[in-house]
Design goal:
The chain is mainly alpha-helical. It has helices spanning 3-10, 18-39, 49-66, 78-98, 102-108, 112-117, 119-128, 131-145, 148-156, 158-180, 193-214, 234-265, 267-270. Helix 2 runs antiparallel to helix 3, helix 3 (49-66) runs antiparallel to helix 4 and helix 8 runs parallel beside helix 11.
Length: 282
């Protein structure tokens, strides 16, 4: 499609209401803090302060991606879109899981404990948390939303733009669940397999980022219609976005793999056994 037709078809990127997302994220943070404050009086279920900070930084990263002024660059630069994608899939989810959020939410939300204790909820959680499903869902969402047709759909439609970001965040949470193993998850595969899990997860990212970095054609022509927000051309912006993805994913996965390796090589790690799933009694 010629650039002029892209410009006439795409226009500016729609932005969903950042205020509602800010309220939702703030509500999640308040529920977590309320539940954590109740757990502080229970020695068995207490959560250290560093985990609280990790959860809040994860929520902050999600807010920066979807509701801060940075979100407005999504429709102006591919690098802005890539920053959002990395925050929602690579940074926010592991920080949130490191915050061990399940117990605080069970304590902070009335009735959540009963729902969590139901056999169907546990069966659903076991299926949803299977490492193969977590890996495939994250890879599929990553590839699908960067296909030019779906990418353009997300840029043109406010509803689809929201679906895109929710799918990034949701599959990011799924992907990091078997890696972080927050309570009440129990390892279903050997922990060393998570090193292979992380390595294989770099492959679709490497392919996509490599295509963006080394291509001599503009992958998403709608950016030809937007005013330049920097001194970069559209093609240079595309290459910058691919390099950013390549670097960040490699570094984050390397850090996660190093932490896992250290745990596996430690005496405590070699003697770790799965802990039974318990429900917080309120």
């Amino acid at each position: 499609m010629p650039p002029a037709m892209w410009c006439s078809a795409s226009g500016s990127s729609p932005m969903y209401n950042g205020i509602s997302l800010t309220v939702l994220l703030a509500f999640a943070a308040m529920v977590y803090l309320y539940g954590w404050s109740r757990l502080r009086h229970d020695v068995r279920n207490t959560i250290p302060a560093w985990r609280v900070c990790s959860f809040l930084f994860g929520v902050l990263a999600a807010w920066v991606a979807v509701a801060s002024p940075i979100a407005s660059f999504d429709g102006k630069m591919l690098t802005g879109h890539m920053i959002q994608h990395l925050l929602l899939m690579t940074f926010a989810p592991p920080l949130i899981w490191l915050g061990a959020p399940v117990k605080p939410f069970l304590c902070g939300l009335p009735g959540a404990n009963l729902l969590f204790a139901s056999p169907r909820a546990r069966q659903f959680g076991q299926v949803l948390g299977h490492p193969a499903l977590c890996w495939l869902s994250a890879a599929a969402v990553l590839i699908a939303w960067h296909a030019p047709a779906l990418f353009r759909l997300g840029m043109e439609s406010e509803a689809w733009h929201l679906v895109e970001h929710l799918s990034f965040f949701g599959t990011g949470l799924l992907f990091w669940w078997p890696v972080v193993q927050p309570w009440p998850s129990v390892p279903r595969w050997p922990r060393w397999s998570m090193l292979l899990y992380l390595f294989l997860a770099t492959l679709p990212c490497d392919v996509l980022s490599g295509l963006l970095v080394f291509s001599d054609r503009v992958a998403y022509p709608m950016y030809l219609c937007t005013p330049r927000q920097s001194g970069l051309s559209v093609l240079e912006d595309q290459q910058c976005a691919g390099a950013l993805m390549w670097t960040c994913v490699t570094v984050i996965f390397l850090v996660a793999g190093t932490i896992l390796s250290t745990q596996l090589l430690s005496p405590e790690g070699s003697q770790t056994h799965p802990q039974p799933v318990e429900v917080v009694s309120l």
